[in-house]
Amino acid sequence: MKISIILPTYNRAGHYLSRAIESVITQSYKDWELIIIDNNSKDGTQELVESYKNEKIHFYTINNDGNIAKSRNLGISKASGTYIAFLDSDDYWFKSKLEICMTSLYKNKNYQCICHSENWVYPDNKSITKDYGPENNYSFKKLLMRGNCISLSATMVKKSILTEVDYFSENDELITAEDYDLWIKISKNYNFLFINDVLGAFCLHNDSESANILRNSEAVLNVIRSHVSNNDFFLKRAISNALKNKGKQFYINNKRSEACMAYFSSINDFKSFVRAILLILILLIPYKFISRMTG
């Protein structure tokens, strides 16, 4: 059964893109095609891809105007595989990723989507293992209440499901949270099979600026609003939790005044008030000390 791998890229020629491509070529599972969607790179990306001289690698260009959903959707539209796997150009897989995913789906025929564990690799090359399960954490309600719990490079989804939910949203208001929106759409009718096998690496970079956190948190709020009625009490709870998560991101990045403001913004009832006060008190302790105690 063929797997189509969608890999969007922009000016990643060299170590990152080569490593990602090599991690596909060396897969133990051989029935795949790699669809690379390049956002008009200027660094020799096309020449790098063509140097592999591999008929299973297909190269397309696009001008996505900063909306990566357009690149991924183009890749999906070109895919001939039954399943779609996603790989970002700075991430990479381990050799048995596709084989284990397909074997797991074959043994669990009620599932058509799968997510595996992966290593999160930080700029200093330290890594932690991220487990996205268990399955009971994945539901329409819990995704809205707890936020995104799935890494795109750790997933594989049947193409017919992506077609059914109309691919990734290309709404500019959802940029940076378009994958979160996709999982919510899928969760309305399908469950993910979560496996504990560590089958790849998600690489983090030094790009957690305040502007990026603000942009992503606003996109997350837009996703939530698009899926929940404005008059629903559940909406208030979901938005409160999203603002709390925004505060935690600021805290992790040592931006404690911004974190405090986000926690205050999350207050909309007594329960959220108590929670916000506790989180604000924790801000008195720098995150690096908390991470040492818990790590």
Structural overview:
It is a single chain. The protein is an alpha/beta fold and 295 residues long. 44% of the residues lie in helices and 18% in strands. It has two domains: 3-203, Alpha-Beta Complex (Spore Coat Polysaccharide Biosynthesis Protein SpsA, Chain A), CATH 3.90.550; 228-294. It is built from twelve helices and nine strands. Strands 1, 2, 3, 4, 5, 6, 7, 8 and 9 form a nine-stranded mixed β-sheet that branches. The protein is globular and about 60 Å long.
SSE blueprint and pairings:
Blueprint: E1 3-9, H1 15-25, E2 32-38, H2 45-50, E3 57-61, H3 68-78, E4 83-86, E5 92-93, H4 97-107, E6 113-121, E7 127-130, H5 140-146, E8 155-158, H6 159-164, H7 178-187, E9 193-203, H8 210-227, H9 233-252, H10 256-265, H11 270-282, H12 287-294
Parallel strand pairs: 1-2, 1-4, 2-3, 6-9
Antiparallel strand pairs: 4-8, 5-9, 6-7, 6-8
Helix pairs in contact: 7-8, 8-9, 9-10, 10-11
